Amino acid sequence: MSLNLEEKKAVVAELGAELANAQTVVVAEYRGIGVVGMTALRAKARANGVYLRVLKNTLARRAVAGTPFAGLSDHLVGPLAYGISKDPVAAAKVLADFAKGNDKIVVKAGAMANFVMSAKDVSNLASMPSRDELLAKLMGTMQAPITQFVRTLNEVPTKFVRGLAAVRDKQAA
């Protein structure tokens, strides 16, 4: 079912609004995937905060024109699903992980602001930890010396109490 001009403008405006806040756009070909597979992909994308949309490439070209993702226009060929996310890794992770389990989804390209990525670059990006994971690792690294210092300080009175208990037990015997 084709869209009329007003609906097309609305789709381009909606996609443009998503691209304005996005850090990553990943494009995957979905040729031959069934409704069940596409529904599972959409559910996974929604759970990870990824905007996933299937639309005509001409509308996508109009939406990316004039944005930092304009270089992606050359890769918009064939039936494509567009994954857009604010997290730099989320869209790549969702589409690459789904493509591993489903041979009908093929990641074609991706883009970050003013940088177009090949399919290999997208898979490398997908293998990186997410922002939250990196922050957790950083906090653990920053907290480790303080935790060890507190354990060391706590060990002095503990050893003293154990020594007193040993002296008490020796005198009692």
UniProtKB/TrEMBL annotation:
Protein name stated in the entry: Large ribosomal subunit protein uL10
GO biological process: translation
NCBIfam families reported in the protein's UniProt record: PRK00099.1-1 (NF000955)
This protein's GO CC annotations: ribonucleoprotein complex; ribosome
Short name of one Pfam family: Ribosomal_L10
Top-rank taxon: Bacteria
Keyword entries, A-Z: Ribonucleoprotein, Ribosomal protein, RNA-binding, rRNA-binding
Family per record: Belongs to the universal ribosomal protein uL10 family.
Gene: rplJ
MF terms (GO), sorted A to Z: large ribosomal subunit rRNA binding
Subunit annotation: Part of the ribosomal stalk of the 50S ribosomal subunit. The N-terminus interacts with L11 and the large rRNA to form the base of the stalk. The C-terminus forms an elongated spine to which L12 dimers bind in a sequential fashion forming a multimeric L10(L12)X complex.
Record function comment: Forms part of the ribosomal stalk, playing a central role in the interaction of the ribosome with GTP-bound translation factors.
